[in-house]
């Protein structure tokens, strides 16, 4: 026997609330695990760099957005409206450091003539969720009292069909951005990594960048593909697919924040280990070298260290600004 619409609505709300709490717990658990690295690498040192700003924005915008999303909505319409607007703004803004990170990474690894066009394209594609989340959550937003649920309910005039199109456009832009960065990462680091694997020893910087970059952007790509696939399939009204879509939607943003934090921590550790070093490391490695401009280096930090790609026969590729 099918449940009534009211029972189904309560069940879906209960399900969403519990998975929202799971997302917050997952995020807080990772913060506890990496807090010592955060303090050592980003708080200590006496100066604020671009890497520090990007890391902290990624960590705490997402944390604030997840806490607001998991918190119960106030029964007062006025309070509920303010809380929901704050949540909508924070949820959209958390994509800004992720877009900057993707753009900087593509800028770092692209050869000189293509750095600005490709990084600008990646940033534009990665920034689409900022606009779509703002519009989808806040456009002509209003709250009404629901006496059956005993709380205020958000409503807007956007149709389900329009929201579906917006979701597809958002996921398509993120998929395109991740594919571009994956291609650039593989193209620029695979050769040096393959060469370095011929000689035994500890992993080189090239292998670290290739592995971490592949895991990071491939994971985001898979999440975006699954989100869009389940969203499109869920239009048919399959309850199991709708549940899967909800789980991915609730966990995607915390997982993105966690992956970004881990990647930035690894890059900061590598940069700290090579500060002040101008030496060229062994075959097949990617080398961080100090910036020629002291002011630029101080602000950008590990985002502005330089990479040298060493090839066979002692030849060296161009030196790029990098993460």
Automatic annotation (TrEMBL):
InterPro entries reported in the protein's UniProt record: DUF6533
Superkingdom of the organism of origin: Eukaryota
Membrane-spanning residues: 20-44, 51-73, 85-104, 116-136, 168-187, 208-230
Residue stretches making up the DUF6533 domain: 20-64
Pfam family, one: DUF6533
Keywords: Membrane, Transmembrane, Transmembrane helix
Record bears the keyword Translocase: no
Name this protein carries in UniProt: DUF6533 domain-containing protein
Source organism: Dichomitus squalens
């Amino acid at each position: 026997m099918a449940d009534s619409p009211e029972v189904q609505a309560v069940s879906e709300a209960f399900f969403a609330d519990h998975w929202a709490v799971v997302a917050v717990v997952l995020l807080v658990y990772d913060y506890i695990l990496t807090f010592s690295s955060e303090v050592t690498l980003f708080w200590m040192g006496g100066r604020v760099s671009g890497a520090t700003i990007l890391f902290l924005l990624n960590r705490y915008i997402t944390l604030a957005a997840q806490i607001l999303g998991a918190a119960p909505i106030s029964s007062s319409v006025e309070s509920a409206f303010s809380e929901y607007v704050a949540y909508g703004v924070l949820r959209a803004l958390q994509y800004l450091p992720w877009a900057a990170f993707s753009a900087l990474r593509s800028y770092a690894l692209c050869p000189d003539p293509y750095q600005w066009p490709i990084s600008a394209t990646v940033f534009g594609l990665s920034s689409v969720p900022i606009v779509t989340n703002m519009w989808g959550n806040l456009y002509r937003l209003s709250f009404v009292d629901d006496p059956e649920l005993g709380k205020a309910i958000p409503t807007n005039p956007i149709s389900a069909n329009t929201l579906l199109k917006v979701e597809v456009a958002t996921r398509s832009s993120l998929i395109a951005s991740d594919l571009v960065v994956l291609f650039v990462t593989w193209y620029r680091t695979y050769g040096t990594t393959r060469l370095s694997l011929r000689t035994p020893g500890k992993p080189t910087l090239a292998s670290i960048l290739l592995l971490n970059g592949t895991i990071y952007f491939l994971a985001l790509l898979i999440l975006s593909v699954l989100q869009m696939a389940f969203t499109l399939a869920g239009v048919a009204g399959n309850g199991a697919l709708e549940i899967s879509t909800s789980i991915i939607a609730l966990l995607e943003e915390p997982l993105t924040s966690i992956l970004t934090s881990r990647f930035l921590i690894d890059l900061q550790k590598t940069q700290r280990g090579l500060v002040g070093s101008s030496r060229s490391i062994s075959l097949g490695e990617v080398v961080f070298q100090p910036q020629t401009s002291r002011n630029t280096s101080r602000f950008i930090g590990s985002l502005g260290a330089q990479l040298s790609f060493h090839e066979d026969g002692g030849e060296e590729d161009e030196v790029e600004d990098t993460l």
